[in-house]
Specification:
The chain has helices at residues 10-14, 18-27, 42-48, 58-65, 80-88, 101-105, 120-130; strands at 2-8, 31-38, 70-77, 114-116. It is an alpha+beta fold.
């Protein structure tokens, strides 16, 4: 059983899409192992997205991620990382496949409703950023 991190981003939380997104995740056969709502400050967002520090979009991304509450979710399943990334769809919702979370809910390339880990090492860092071992169930 593989673990991955799902973040429901500020735009989706503002639009009351938490339940709709989690419904799609569970319908796809992924299991929720931990879940919490929180709000990152700018420094925390910069820490989470540190790998993008040199990218031109870093400032906008971290400001956006600190602009409102998010929901952090640990998902589990066989090939969870790959399966969740396929369910999310392309970063740019205009390029996302029909039926993906981003095609259905994203507003723009930045306000694309969800984040997901891209590799096992990334998932380990991202999960530990938001959750400790006692918060994991299952």
């Amino acid at each position: 059983m593989e673990l991955t991190l799902c973040l429901i981003k500020p735009d989706a939380v503002r639009r009351n899409l938490i339940g709709s997104i989690l419904f799609m995740v569970e319908k796809a056969g992924l299991k929720v192992m931990a879940l919490k709502m929180l709000q990152l400050d700018k420094r925390q967002a910069e820490g989470f997205y540190h790998v993008h520090r040199e990218r031109p979009f870093f400032g906008e991304l971290t400001e956006y991620m600190a602009s409102g509450p998010i929901v952090a979710v640990v998902l589990a399943g066989d090939d969870a990382i790959k399966r969740y990334r396929e369910l999310m769809g392309a970063t740019d919702p205009t390029q996302a496949a029909e039926g993906t979370i981003r095609k259905v809910f994203a507003v723009s390339k930045q306000e694309n409703s969800v984040h997901g880990s891209d590799a096992p090492e990334t998932a380990a860092f991202e999960i530990s950023f938001f959750f400790n071992a006692m918060e994991m169930v299952g």
